[in-house]
Amino acid sequence: MPPVGDPSDLPTCLLCVCLTGSVYCEEVDPDMTSVPALPKETNYLYARYNKIKKITAKDFGDIVECSSVYFHSSTVVTLKRIDFTGNIISEIEDGAFSKLTMLEELSLAENQLVKLPILPAKLVSFNANHNKLRTKGIKANAFKKLNKLAHLYLAHNELEAVPFIPETVRTLHLQNNNISSLTVDTFCKSNDTYYIRPNMNEIRIDGNPVNLGQYPNSFICLQSLPIGRYQ
Please, what sign has the CA dihedral across residues 170, 91, 102, 85? Predict the structure, then answer.
């Protein structure tokens, strides 16, 4: 058998398992180092535990001809879930996800990211656990326009502060970062003592240097106390 060349030259459905609406590219051999071209009408992409290094603005936007099979840019319209857990992604171009108008779930966990790209507006769940994110790598408005976001996972990073969290978020994991302080406005509103945050029911801040007991007014609007150190 002749040696296998660059896996990016092979049709995706020879390297991966393609089922109706789903593409599974997990632990691909030979190593997958870039985002594969996707069949038309792909709803779910699982590309976990590969060697993908970078996600570009072209990865979910171009029409690609691969061994007489056309992979269309219309794919981006149908994608609802993408899972890149366990790669070595260190860079994502800002426009990489701009055409993913239906994307609801995105996992970038267990990679090497130091900053976040612009995220799709309809995300419900975003997971960036186990990266190298610092506060300066998350823009002030990174999550501000995500008005459907319910689950946000940023644990096991290097964050020094809690980023802006939309009111829609129900689950927030920030454990094992470098967060050392909070403010009244972190979760609540300093100018509205009657404000009750309506959705958030699980916050983890354990494994950070912050002593939550020093910031009681930071939780006055919450329906349950965060998990963390209080003394």
Answer: negative
Per-residue pLDDT of the chain (231 residues; tens, 9 = 90+): 333 444 444 578 888 999 989 999 999 988 999 999 998 889 999 999 999 999 999 998 753 444 434 444 555 678 999 999 999 999 999 899 999 999 999 999 999 999 999 999 999 999 999 999 999 999 999 999 999 999 999 999 999 999 999 999 999 999 999 999 999 999 999 999 999 999 999 999 999 999 999 999 999 999 999 999 998
Residue-by-residue DSSP string for 87-133? S---EE-TTTTTT-TT--EEE--SS--SS--PPPTT-SEEE--SS--
Burial of 76 (0-12, 13-18, 19+ CB in 10 A): buried
Candidates 73, 72, 74, 28; CA nearest to 52 is: 28
Nearest to 14 by CA among 34, 33, 39: 39
Cα angle 216, 221, 223 (rounded to 5 degrees) comes to 100
- Cα separation of 2 and 11, whole Å? 17
This prediction has a pTM of: 0.90
CA 125 – CA 150 distance, rounded (Å): 6
What's the token pair of residue 64?
A: 């690609």
Cβ neighbours of residue 225 under 8 Å, at least 6 residues apart? 212, 219
The CATH architecture that domain 8-62+74-183 belongs to is Alpha-Beta Horseshoe (3.80)
Longest dimension (CA), the chain: 72
Tokens of 179: 């967060």
